[in-house]
Design goal:
alpha/beta; electron transport; Elongation Factor Tu (Ef-tu), domain 3; Four Helix Bundle (Hemerythrin (Met), subunit A); globular; single chain; flavoprotein; 13% strand; four-stranded antiparallel β-sheet; 705 residues
């Protein structure tokens, strides 16, 4: 053997020996007292660190992200440094929010599990079990509703709760497996017959059941089964682990029981019975009403939600559902000042019966960081002083506005809202409040069935800025999505594949479309300016506003009072005046527009028409001014231009009154823009990714189970 081969052989042998020497084993001789002390110490460090991150750093992050300086740093990082041209942006893991949460908490718990163990596998095994127990209080704290954390909605904590629980299940499983291996090596498997170890094995089986039913397909298939197992097995594991752990864990058990008991107390004390009235709207939606006075907590902000469940006549069932609260969350579609609560419910979620008693809990206010409820001043003078102390240059501040119950302090200049399906209940009150307070807003509602538009007739609302897209896609409401144009996605601009079983959108729909569009002209006009790296959206088939307003819907005063006409003060052309006021005997306000059924070539919609309906029922009236399109919207450059106030119409782009703001501070403009998404997971995640790529403020309400 040559000297070179001998040298390589020795280097490989040394490397293998070095790796082997650092593999944890049960053969390490460590003092039992020292090992126990280290396990308890690092477990407490893990609990302390997790508590600080959840209770301090997370709310602090939610607060700092609202500041202009933090937003500037975040925008430059996301939009410019880690923009679409970067290699990191092309990775799918970079856009996977669940992966980031899982990776962070997995790394954190691994550090406290393995650090300073001197390759002592028995100590690692003990730490796994102890850390799994220590993470139970933070885990249960994350499930509290409402969340006691400031500027934090409890729904936003559920992804963290989900992934920490899965890591805890993994730690518990490894703890059990390594202990079984240790007992086999020491020939002490008979210790499994001891009662504390039996408690531990049962707790492990319950953990596995909780983890298995939390997987998305299982949870969506039978959410009721998941919830019953999740809640009841949590109580059982808390009790079993108390009797299994050695040394004892009285403090951990006390914290767990306090959190779970407080949740029951809050739910029982804030639950009332109410009698509801239902109104069938469409084959997929029903409107439910009950009095505001039946709520223990009155909503203070728009788009709050309540939790509802049917009230059982059987006393035992009623007590059971008080302890195990299988309730359905629904967003309040009315304003906080309305005397009646209206809920928009997707059929099949809950048995709906008129004049039936239901248990209602709440209301739970949303955490909309750009809306604040003003304090109630003693008089108008104090109100004015308060307004100017919190002066918002983008909000209309007048005496009549300040004294209105719809007055809110809005920290936004423009708000772009995307909702899908029954999540329109989140967008309607928000649209009215923002319009009333002088904020420029767009509400884009994506629905599968055009008959859902009948819902709008039940609300007296200001629908300015509302756009409706009828996707006609087959499937459940949770499958509603919104397209997002991205460089790392294959182009589908000229693809139109419509079969009887699938629907791929033919159109690349730009959200910017004028009310009076001409079918013979392009909907959007190409611009020479490029903003960042946003891709231009194109259309293969131009969409037409199906709710296009007619001339008789409004009076045109420009023909009478145009600046180019000079008339004598003493002479009035009566005939010309009468011709300009042809509608003086008619209702001067704009009237509802009738929407006809989708065109016959809109094949995906044919699947929705399962019942034969009369021609009158097939037509839907929508408020005038609402834009209705058949297709699915696409997030693209025009939406970004709208956020920057660069959304000038193609017809008036050269007008001197068009505010393009090309030379304004882009970051300063965007810091006053919010993007909001509510509804199915696909719609929310597409909007989140688009917003994240642009570095904008984002608020999400995910309606997925």
């Amino acid at each position: 053997m040559s000297p070179l081969k001998d040298s390589n052989y020795e280097e490989n042998t040394q490397l293998i020996d070095w790796i082997t020497s650092r593999i944890p084993t049960f053969e390490k001789e460590v003092d039992k007292v020292v090992r126990t002390t280290q396990v308890r110490t690092w477990t407490r460090y893990c609990l302390l660190c997790s508590t600080i991150m959840i209770c301090i750093l997370l709310p602090l992050r939610n607060y700092l992200i609202l500041t202009e300086r933090f937003f500037s740093i975040s925008h430059r990082l996301k939009h410019h440094i880690l923009g679409r041209q970067s290699l990191l942006h092309k990775s799918r893991l970079y856009h996977n929010r669940s992966f980031r949460i899982c990776l962070f908490w997995f790394a954190t718990l691994c550090f406290f599990t393995f650090y300073n163990t001197q390759q002592d596998l028995l100590q690692i095994t003990k730490r796994m079990g102890r850390i799994a127990v220590a993470m139970m209080p933070p885990l249960l704290f994350l499930s509290l509703r409402p969340s006691p954390l400031p500027k934090t909605l409890y729904l936003s904590l559920l992804p963290i709760h989900k992934w920490i629980s899965r890591i805890v299940v993994l730690e518990s499983l490894l703890h059990t497996g390594f202990y079984l291996l240790y007992m086999q090596k020491k020939n002490s498997l008979q210790k499994l017959k001891k009662l504390p170890n039996i408690y531990g094995i049962i707790a492990m089986l319950l953990f596995i059941a909780i983890g298995a039913t939390s997987i998305n397909p299982v949870r969506r298939c039978n959410f009721r089964l998941f919830y019953y197992i999740h809640y009841s097995f949590t109580w059982m594991t808390v009790i079993l682990l108390h009797f299994h752990a050695r040394p004892g864990i009285p403090y951990y058990t006390a914290m767990n029981c306090i959190i779970l008991s407080y949740q029951i107390y809050y739910r029982v004390s804030h639950t009332r019975q109410t009698v509801v009235t239902t109104y069938p709207v469409s084959p997929s939606l029903t409107l439910l009403e009950f009095p505001l006075s039946d709520l223990t907590n009155k909503p203070t902000l728009p788009s709050a939600h309540v939790r509802l469940n049917i009230c059982h006549k059987n006393f035992i069932k009623r007590i059971f559902f008080k302890i195990i609260p299988f309730q359905h969350p629904f967003t309040i579609a009315t304003l906080p000042t309305d005397e009646t609560i209206k809920l928009i419910i997707r059929n099949g979620q809950l048995p709906l019966r008129t004049n039936k008693s239901y248990d209602v809990t709440g209301a739970f206010d949303p955490e909309l960081n750009f809306i604040e409820q003003p304090t109630k001043p003693s008089n108008l003078t104090n109100s004015l002083l308060e307004t100017y102390s919190n002066y918002n240059p983008f909000q209309v501040n007048s005496t009549s506005l300040l004294t209105s119950p719809l007055h809110y302090i809005i920290h936004a200049k423009r708000v772009l809202i995307f909702v899908g399906g029954s999540a329109i209940s989140f967008g309607l009150p928000l649209l009215r409040i923002l319009n009333f307070n002088g904020v420029v807003v767009r509400l884009i509602w994506v629905s599968r069935d055009y008959r859902d538009l009948k819902l709008l007739s039940y609300f007296k609302n200001n629908f300015q800025g509302m756009e409706i897209y009828i996707s006609g896609c087959i499937g459940k409401e949770q499958d509603i999505q919104i397209d997002y144009v991205d460089f790392d996605q294959p182009s589908r601009e000229n693809v139109c594949d419509i079969s009887e079983n699938t629907f791929h959108p033919c159109q690349r729909i730009c959200a910017e479309q004028t009310l009076h569009s001409d079918e013979t002209k392009p909907i959007t006009k190409g611009r020479s300016c490029k903003y960042g790296s946003i891709k231009k959206c194109s259309t293969s088939t131009n969409l037409t506003n199906m709710a296009e307003s007619k001339e008789i819907d409004e009076i045109d005063f420009t023909s009478m009072f145009g600046s180019g006409k000079k008339k004598s003060k003493s002479v009035v052309n009566v005939s010309e005046l009468e011709s300009g006021l042809t509608l003086r005997n008619e209702d001067p306000f704009r009237k509802p527009i009738t929407i006809n059924p989708p065109p016959c070539d809109f094949k995906p919609y044919n699947k929705l028409q399962t019942n034969m309906e009369s021609p009158n029922n097939m037509k839907v009236k929508v408020p005038s001014g609402v834009k209705v399109y058949f297709g699915r919207p696409t997030l693209c450059e025009t939406d970004y231009e709208w956020c920057l106030e660069r959304d000038c119409s193609a017809d008036v782009q050269d007008d001197a009154g068009c505010q393009t703001n090309y030379e304004s501070n882009e970051i300063e403009d965007l810091s006053n823009v919010w993007v909001v998404a509510a509804g199915p997971a696909g719609l929310v995640e597409s909007t989140r990714r688009w917003t994240n790529d642009l570095g904008l403020h984002f608020h999400a309400e995910n309606y997925a189970v």
